[in-house]
Design a protein that fits this description.
The chain is an alpha+beta fold. It has 5 helices and 4 strands. It is elongated, with a radius of gyration of 23 Å.
Amino acid sequence: MRRKRQRRLMLLILVPVFVLLGFLTNISFNFFSAGYQTEKLVNTFYTLEQDGDFSDSWELLHPYMKDRWKKGAFIQDRAHVFINHFGAETFQFTVIEGDRIDGWSMSQDLPPVDSAYQFTVTQTYQGKYGKFSFIQEVYVAEDNGEWRILWDYN
């Protein structure tokens, strides 16, 4: 009888412990996975752009992009085209996750990155020309341990 009680007690303790461990493993895998981190970066980038904070959004660009767009030119161009030219003060956006791509290259004249994560971003504006949307393929690749934004120039 005493052994049965001990087994029941052990089961009552071990089952919740294993369930909790499984739950914590699942959460940590999702929050620390590359897919989660890269999607979070894309959302952060476009939230900064949405707020007109082009200086901080530029900081999230991959070095290949920073070579293509110097900071001052990037800030001025983004503000001019999307805010001033189209008469839109801000925009809404949606992010659709794509696939992981190995050996992807931003342009033909640059070496490929080991792997990139592809996203489709739709920015919707309400401006002086009415409502319109831009759809852009966005890629995220690692550079020195940090995830960074890239666009496709092929």
